[in-house]
Amino acid sequence: MDKVFISQLHVDTIIGVYDFEKESKQSLYFDIEMLSDIKPAAENDDINLALDYSKVSERVIEHSTAKPVELLETLVEQLAEIILSEFNTPQVTIRVSKPAAVAQAQTVGVEITRVKATD
Q1: CB–CB of 27/12 below 8 Å?
Q2: Alpha helices in the chain (DSSP H)
Q3: Of these four, 11, 21, 37, 85, which has the most CB atoms within 10 Å of its CB?
């Protein structure tokens, strides 16, 4: 399997447990890797056969800004489910960074890998 990736997708959204975090948007940065067989798209030079990283990016931004959640863990689980169900990939790894969360750290975050359930 090949990998299609998105690196440092920037999203400003409301996220956090504390009251002050719910008052203004914070920056999140997403790194997303999706397994995909790129050969059919490459052989036909056809975006319709590709795992479209632009559409995945739009969907991540849309979901991340639609309804605030408190935990990064919640958000990445939701996004993994969306990507696996809406896009042609059997596996996704999502890493989300929240640079403003800990003053003494450059960034903190969560990384998960999820595999599409088989029937």
Answers
A1: yes
A2: 39-44, 53-66, 72-86
A3: 11
Catalytic residue of the set 3, 22, 55, 98: 98
Backbone angles phi, psi at 40, to 5 degrees: -60, -40
- Write the CA distances from 26 to 23, 64, 93, 95, integer angstroms: 10, 11, 22, 16
Q: What is the pLDDT of residue 20?
A: 82
Q: Give the phi and the psi of residue 23 in degrees, each rounded to 5.
A: -95, -20
Q: What is the pLDDT of residues 60-81, one digit of tens each?
A: 999 999 989 999 999 999 999 9
CB 36 within 8 A of CB 89: yes
User: Which H or E element spans position 2?
Assistant: strand 2-13
Would residue 98 show up in a list of annotated catalytic residues for this protein?
yes
**What pTM did the predictor assign?**
0.93
